[in-house]
């Protein structure tokens, strides 16, 4: 599965390969690794652990709500932007202090998670998982700010790409790597190893330098920290949202409804993907090899195909194809129910599912980017991307209850059915976009 909050960014053709050897770009690669590692550990990998521990699927699916930490991180980002940490900020500087604190706390939280048995101490396990998600989202806030502030404008596309490369490597380690360790040793050792991998970010923070400037909204803030936080929230949330409604007028609510529904079917299914693989009879190593390692390569192909499709056919036509593709590929999981644990069928399902999601995510990125006012580039994109994942995460929290009531086969038809509103809305959006193009 592709992280809903991550963005695949391809650098401009201008910068050559030597740009990737510059110190800020290398630093962002390792910070991207640090940012990407915790996400699967509170999502796909965590659900596999819970399923392996025979936790009820209705309980497992509620862990989808951990994703709200990523969706709502803009609510406490003003405090991260404005409040200095005692002693640490004086020693490391504002950004590095927050990085160091969040990374150290993440390591401690992952080690704590590793020693808790979810079968015996579910409440404690859930509380620590919430802490990991919150700290991971906080780290993301600081990394984004550090990336923007650490280099000149012409390097930003390279920094974004470097971040994504680091992020993708970490996701593979946090999924396939953790599953291999869990299969051959234990889940406790897997999470201890992942906590050890988080030291990559900690060491990077200690070795990198503090940005010389405060960028974006942060540079416009004045007054005490709490007053700055209020200013930040208004400038980063209220103004960009009102601007979006004003510019899109009568189309605004259709656009928002489409954005909100686009990922619903994928999220409803995705939270139970690993529990399903284990339940149907695949081993953790088989899941790691096919669903995670092989799936990662398929996702890269899907990203490239999505970019090529936008160039060739335009965003308006692609949004319909992307939506139909994502919704329909959910039905391939029903094939596994019928055939049982056959690796070739799993590979076929992963091929279509990962390709469709990465293809569709690339289309959605292009679609959202076209809706953005350059005056509010970062803030509007963050708000719209949060909207795009909110309802999917909310419904995913109930996926376990639905599955237990209707069984796996019917569940996959249900998951596909939750995508029907998105398909209908995609036709409405495409029609309005094509109509506007004809008027121009």
UniProtKB/TrEMBL annotation:
Gene Ontology CC terms, in alphabetical order: membrane
Membrane-protein topology: Multi-pass membrane protein
Sorted UniProt keywords: Membrane, Transmembrane, Transmembrane helix, Transport
Annotated compartments: Membrane
Gene3D superfamilies: MFS general substrate transporter like domains
Main location: membrane
InterPro entries: AmpG_permease/AT-1, MFS_trans_sf
Transmembrane segments: 25-51, 63-85, 97-116, 122-144, 165-182, 253-273, 293-311, 318-339, 345-369, 381-399, 411-430
Superkingdom assignment: Bacteria
Record's protein name: Protein AmpG
